[in-house]
Every structure is written in C-alpha cells, then in structure tokens.
Amino acid sequence: GDPRHRAGHPGVRKMKACAALVGMAIAASISASALAQVRVAQWNVTNYSSGRVADFSNSIYGVYNGRSMAPDVIVAEEIEQGGYPPGGTQPQGQQSVNSFLAILNGAAGSPHDWAAATYMLNNGDTGNALFFRASKIVLVSTTALTQNTGSGPNQPPRDTQRWLVRLYGYASNGAQMYLYGSHMKAGSTQADQDRRTPEAMRIRNDAEALPAGSNFLFCADTNIQSSNQAAYQVLIGSAPTTLGQFFDPILTPGSWNNNGAFHIVHTQEPSTQMDDRHDQVLVSATLRDGGGLDYIGSTTIPYSTTTWNDLNHSYRCWGNDGTTFQNPIATTTNTMVGPSIAASLIATVEGNGHLPVYLDLRVPAKVGAPAAVDFGTVPVGSVATATIQVFNAADLARFSRDGTDAGIEVLSYALAASSGFTAPPGVFTDHAGGGVNTHTLNMSTATPGPVTGTLTITSNDPDQPMLVVTLTGNVVGAPCPCDWNHSGALDSQDFFDFLTDFFNGSADFNMSGETNSQDFFDFLTCFFDGCP
Question: Residue 190 contacts by C-beta under 8 Å, 6 or more apart in sequence?
C-alpha cells in the first residue's frame, strides 16, 4: 500500500525525490512554535493516581509567547495501578487513567476531545497509559509485552505496552504508527543495566516482527545514562536487521549523566537538578525518510548544544530552557515556557520526577479527484478534450494548528492514460487547502463508437497510491446531409420537410448561397443513394 516502498516505479522514484526536497524545506522552516500537525509527547507523570489538576492543566495547555505543549498524543508512565479497590469494578490503574483523562478534557484551552486506551493491568509497581485526541487519532489495538517481567536479576521490572494507532480519516498502514510505552529499571549499577537490556530486547524483537514499512516510536523513561549502554545499543543498533531499528531523531548520542554538554536535552530532575536525559522518543527509519508520515526535523543535523530553540528540530524537552544545569529548571527567567508553566512543571513531579518531551510528525498527503470524466458525444475526426481537477485532499481543518498547510505533506503525483486517451506527462504537486490543479485530457476520435478507458493517478497518498479514474466518451460519424430533420434516420419525413423548406426558400442543400433547383436535385441524389 505505501508508495514509498514501490521503488521500481519510475514515477514513484521521482515523487520520492520531490518529497525528500519538500521535507528538507519543511525542516528548515521549523519555528519556535513548531507548526506541528501531530504532536507525540512522552511523560513520566510521577506515581499518578489523582490530583495535581491545576498544575498538569497549566503545564499542558498554558501559553507563553505563543508556545504551548498542546500535544495530540501522550504516552505516560508511572500510572498508579494497585489492584481492585474494595467494591470497585475497575482496577486502580483505570481509575488513575480516568483521572488524568479528566484533566486533559477539563483544562482551559483543551479541545475537549481526549480519549484513552483501556488500561492494561501491568506486572510491576506502576503501569503505562496512552492518551490521544480522538479527532485526530484512532486507536486500533493494544498489546502487552510481558516476556520475563519480574523482580529477579536480568528481568525487566515492568511490562511494556504497544499501541497501534492510525490518523483519523486514513485507512492504510502508511498512516499508522506503533507506540511503545516503557518504564525501564532505574539505577546505574551493572545489575540495573542488566535488567534494562532484556526489556530493550523484547521491544526490538517485537519491532523486527512488525509488517514491512511500519512506522513505530519508542516513548519511554529509559533511566539510561549513556547511549553506550547495552539496552540503548539494542534499540538503535542495526542488528539483527534494520527492520526494527530505532533512531534518535535529534542525533545526540553520548554520556548524558552529569554532563553539561547535554544540558539542553536533560529531562531529569526539574525540581532539584537537571542532570540526565532519561526521557526520550525514538523513531523508526520510515519516520525519517522524507515521505509520508514523518518526523518534522533534520535527519542529518544534531540538536543544538547552546539553545533549546533549535530551528532544525521539532523535538523539545518542555520546560528546559538550558540555563540551569545541575539545578532546578528556571522559573521567573525561563525563556522557553515562562514562570507560570515552569512552576507548574516543577509542581507536577512532587519532589522527584521528569519533564515531558515531544516531537512533531507531518501528516501524509491525500489525493483528490473525480471518480469519472465524460468527454460527451463528439464527431469522428474532431478534437476531443476534457479537464480533470486533482488536488491535495488532506484535512487541513482537522490537522492544521495555524490554518496553513505547514506540516502536511505536499501531494506529488503523475498521470497515465490508457489506450485511446492521453494525459500530460511529468510530476505535479499540490498543497493541502489550496487550489486545484486542472489538467486537459485528450480522447482519440478516429473511429466511431463508444470509447472507454482509465486515467491512473500515481501519488504519494498512502491510502490510494494508484487512484484509477474512469474515462468515457462517444464518437459519432459525420452527420447525413439529407437527414433533413436530424432525427438519426433517413425516411419520408425528411423528404417532406425538405420540400417545405425548399418552397419557403430555405433549403440551400449544396451550400451555394441560394435555394434553387440544383439543391432539389442534389437532395434527391443523396436521399435515394442513402446515408453512409
């Protein structure tokens, strides 16, 4: 289904190149208030069961200098779960999810369209949860990765959840993404690291088994201090194959712990000291290939080491303005989120916790065109043309944050007509929400009779990479001059009608400029010879 993987088609190769150029242009134009279409956030919400309503509301929907976190998806860890409360019909984890969902839908500035995946009772002390805006995201399925979860050596302490979601209004795999929610073992000892590695392995093995071309993201409190640790290398390495490989979208490897060189990307700990990059979102190769659903940002330039406002990336650590390494995040002087949101972020962690991170994804193009084009009835040997309008049908009203098409893929397509018809050559483009492209098609009129065919629109629409439009027309022979009343049949009525016009002086049959006896004789010759 996804044209990015139909590499043998020449038109698609051209469109991939065009899409890559468009992607580079978008990445270069990212602003501080990134014009995201789908924003995916990762957040360890610090043993959440209820409360902290005002601070979470302000952290998520507060606005500073036009900037707001305002995500479309949140993968959360440390959802308090417990068991079933006395007399309760829902596990504590579901009640915790319901409480956080109420915050999302009740916050000032919220679009009030949030939903949540049903909570899965988790092996371990806390669970993971998925929250999403139902106007943009459709939940397809929820899966738990439970292999070897336990409290012993070389065991991950908690289960991993995997959610499959799809963009609203789309149907194909190219508009889907698998989201892995993970909370890995804390600590820096070798024993701690050895308990993170098996969780990374089961995630990597699961990703390797996904359908070819799948989009997937790893959203986690990794508790990993360095990209050289085994668990991280399992995720980002090229073995066993590259199918399940994860990538750091901001290209920032290294030893993050207590290292001021990485202060811009530290996520822990906002209320005491910012000194580590525990919280991350990693992406699949398909989300950084320049086509379709894709990370909005550079795939070659590492994240800035001097400013949080990196115009090459949409990835952000919300609240870390990079000014307080090994100290709490700045509040009154915070240049990223301002004093109010910064204070709320500190309050949400209740003394020890994490800042959220997020990235923005571009929405795929959609092709729009009529189902059929009719050339009508045309004479044999004439020039027969018809027009077709092709446009980018991606839902601008649903996905745009600022009313423009920034962050929606440019439609790229080519036209190919079947025998008897011709279409303009080349590759064409169209932006979402703009005008339409009008193309002139031609139909052969060499032979009388009905004509049918197809126009194939090959595009970067993941749902309809090859849209087929029906073409029809009817070619008729030259009109018979002695079918005087144009009834389609030569009969006595034509003779009587001609006589009436002849005696009225309006039967210039031979087009001589006047009605005379020669017109009468010429008509009789045609009438008795019959029409061809």
Answer: none
Sort residue 153 into left (φ over 0), alpha (ψ -120 to 50) or beta: beta
CA distances from 368 to 72, 184, 383, 410, 461 (A): 26, 45, 27, 13, 10
What residues contact 364, with CB distance under 8 A and at least 6 apart? 167, 170, 174, 175, 292, 293, 394, 409, 460, 461, 462
Percent of residues, the chain, with pLDDT higher than 90: 82
Q: What angle do CA 348, 353, 358 make, to 5 degrees?
A: 80
Letter string b/e over residues 334-369, b meaning 16 or more CB atoms within 10 A of that residue's CB: bebbbebbbbbbbbbbeeebbbbbbbbbbbbbbbbb
Query: Regarding beta strands 38-48 and 73-80, do their DSSP bridges make them parallel or antiparallel, or are they unpaired?
Result: parallel
Question: Once rounded to an integer, what is the mean pLDDT over residues 205-213?
Answer: 97
Structure tokens at 118: 């049903």
Question: Computed from CA positions of residues 15, 20, 23, 29, in that sequence, does the dihedral angle turn out positive or negative?
Answer: negative
In the prediction, which pLDDT does 34 show? 43
Contact 193, 231 (CB under 8 A): yes
In sign, the C-alpha dihedral spanning 175, 292, 438, 403 is positive
Burial class (CB in 10 A: 0-12, 13-18, 19+), 525: exposed
Q: Is the pTM of this model over 0.90?
A: no
- Asked if 118 and 94 touch (Cβ cutoff 8 Å), the reply is yes
Burial annotation 38-50 (CB, 10 A radius, 16+ → b, else e): bbbbbbbbbbbbe
Q: What are phi and psi of 75, to 5 degrees?
A: -100, 120
Give the mean pLDDT of 173-202.
Answer: 98
